[in-house]
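Thread amino acids onto this structure.
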């Protein structure tokens, strides 16, 4: 497990997104978890790589939008050393587990996007 990102919900609890890897080094799932104390986390959603047609999932980035929606940006490794970033969006973090992915960043032979970090400016 690793490559986390975190933000706060409306009640001040930590919402954490992280990647789970197998022994072969491939990311198989992204997990969304929540904690009120920063030590004990409850899993809210698990998102598998098959949902994205990816060979591996890497670092996710979780954010709350200005209108209080939740977004999870998922770093997808594709066959042939290609990358793509997809986004899930929902009204709450649990619902991210059922929302439909939408591609927000593609790559070509000269560019690739991996392990997004999202900052509002």
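Threaded sequence (121 positions):
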């Amino acid at each position: 497990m690793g490559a986390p990102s975190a933000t706060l919900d409306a009640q001040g609890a930590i919402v954490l997104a992280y990647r789970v890897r197998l022994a072969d080094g491939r990311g198989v799932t992204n997990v969304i978890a929540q904690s009120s104390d920063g030590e004990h986390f409850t899993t809210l959603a698990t998102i598998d790589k098959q949902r994205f047609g990816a060979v591996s999932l890497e670092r996710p980035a979780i954010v709350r939008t200005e209108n209080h929606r939740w977004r999870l940006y998922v770093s997808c490794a594709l066959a042939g050393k290609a990358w793509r970033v997809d986004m899930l969006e929902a009204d709450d973090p649990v619902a991210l587990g059922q929302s439909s992915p939408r591609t927000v960043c593609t790559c070509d032979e000269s560019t690739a996007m991996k392990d997004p970090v999202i900052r509002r400016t």
